Each structure stands twice: as structure tokens, then as C-alpha cells.
Amino acid sequence: MVEVREWSRSDTARLLRVPSSGDDKYSRGVVALRTGSAQYPGAAVLGTEAAWRAGAGFVRYVGEGRAADAVIARRPETVVAADTGRTRIDAWVIGSGTDAATRTDDETAALRQILAGTARVVVDAGALDLAAGSAAPFVVTPHAGEFARLRAELRLTPSDDAQRAEAAVEVAARLGGVVLLKGARTLVADPEGRVIEVSAGTGWLATAGSGDVLGGVLGALLAANQDAPLAEATAAAAWLHGYAGRLAADTAGAGERPGPGHPIVAMDVAEALPRAVADLLT
After folding, report:
1. Dihedral in degrees, nearest 10, Cα atoms 110, 116, 117, 118
2. Apex CA 100: angle with CA 66 and CA 52, to 5°?
């Protein structure tokens, strides 16, 4: 039986870094995203937006075409280029809005190079198949369907909801990285067998693009908390994302008493992040 730790509001607040007079855009964390595609350019926009809104000091988008154009149109602060050269990167977000089945050899090589580096990496969607054995510290962020496919690729037996914690630990150990298993109860597992449960969200977060926003929040918090354990920074990002969803849906009422709320879209969650951060810091 795996012991599960419940992640809290105060745990999250501890990992929100308030910039001082000595900070600059680099010391606040540099996030790079290699996400989105011609088919799904919105993933790039949502992840970039969320990284900025969650407090990153510098955000780079690595890509071309529709996704790059959409990013710069929405967030002109973003440095957009086909590659990063030798520039500083504290955390990467890769794979969101992409499909491994249509990935080119050049894209595979570029993603493998990122995963062979030293910066922390958030691995989502179309890059999940590349995570195993990576040298970089990484967190994979599968939803239930992706998690089942990942277990099959790792030649692990199918699991059910009653075994979620044990299954997440098993995958983390096999991959050699942190697993964030999305769901109403998000689980964060590390290769040493520790599991954190995050349940700050709302059912209204079950909307297209919400995971892309989570990727950007993860990038920002992983970049800003280089000394924090990867699993804890991951849990803090998941909690912040969930709380921003509650604020956006109006389910975080006075005294934390939830109301029924209302429908939201993913960009609503990204736009609620500054309010969520401010609330936690007070």
C-alpha cells in the first residue's frame, strides 16, 4: 500500500516566489516551450500565456508557422524563434498539442536533445513516448488514456482506479522521472515511491486546453524553484492550476465555501492565475 500525502494551500504558497529588488527577468525563471502544431496552434498559445501569468520572468517559444504566429499575436512579450541557440533555459515544456504519430525525424531529434540536457522538462502529449531514460529531470503529465498507453509501452499490466497511486509509482520508477497523473484527484509520484494527491480543482476544469495551461504553470514553477524537489514543485503547480480554475468558475467562494460555479474555457484559467497567486500570497 502506497502512502499518499495530501498537498495543501500552504504547501503551494511556500513555493510561490515573490520577486525582490535584486531580481531580474532571468532570475525569476526562464521557460521555453516547444509545443503546438499547425493542427493545434492553440496549445502553444495557452501554455505560453499560462507561463507568463504564473510568474515566469522570461518566456521563449520555439517553433514556426501557425503556432508561432499565434503566440506572438497573443503575447508579444514572448521571444519566438526556430531555436534557442545557447540561451539560458531553466525549464522546458514539450509535446502539448502535438502527435507522436506525425512527428518528423528532425522534431524527434530536437526533443531528444532537450531531454538529454540539464534543464527541467515538462513532457506532455506527443512527447510522452520519448521520456523513458532521459538524462534531464522531468515530469510526464498524462491523462487517463495517455497513462494507459504509457503503461502498455512500458510493458506494464493495465491498472484500475483503485490502483492509481501504485500504478503511478510503478511508471515513475520505470521512467526514472516524476509522474503527474491528471484527474479529479491529481496524483504526483516520484521514482522513490512518494505520492502527493492534489485536489484543489473543480469539474469545470474538464475542458479542452486545460492541460495546456497546466503545462505552462508547471514550466513557470519548475523554473522559479530550482532548489525545490521536482515532485513538490509539480504538486504546487497542479494546486495553483486547480485553484485558478475554481476562481475562474466562481466555485471558490468566501471562506472557501464552493458554489456551483459556471462553465469556463482554458484561457479563463490562465487569466485567473495572477488572482490565484495574489490570493495565496496574502
Report:
1. 150
2. 50
3-state SS, residue 265: coil
59 Cβ partners below 8 Å, 6+ apart? 30, 31, 32, 33, 48, 51, 52, 75, 77, 78, 79
Angle between helices 210-224 and 41-53 (to 10 degrees): 40
pLDDT tens digit string along 240-262? 999 999 999 999 754 455 678 99
CA atoms within 13 A on the CB side of 132: 9
Residue at grid coordinates 514539450 = 94
Distances from the Cα of 246 to the Cα of 16, 234, 255, 256, 270, angstroms: 18, 19, 13, 10, 12
pTM of this structure: 0.96
String of DSSP letters for 181-241: E-SSSEEEE-TTS-EEEE----GGG-STTHHHHHHHHHHHHHHH-TTS-HHHHHHHHHHHH
Q: Give whole-number Cα distances, 102 to 37, 107, 108, 133, 208, in Å.
A: 10, 10, 10, 22, 21
What are 104-146's pLDDT values in tens digits?
A: 999 999 999 999 999 999 999 999 999 998 999 999 999 999 9
Residues sharing a CB contact under 8 Å with residue 234, sequence separation 6 or more, in sequence order = 139, 178, 180, 188, 218, 221, 222
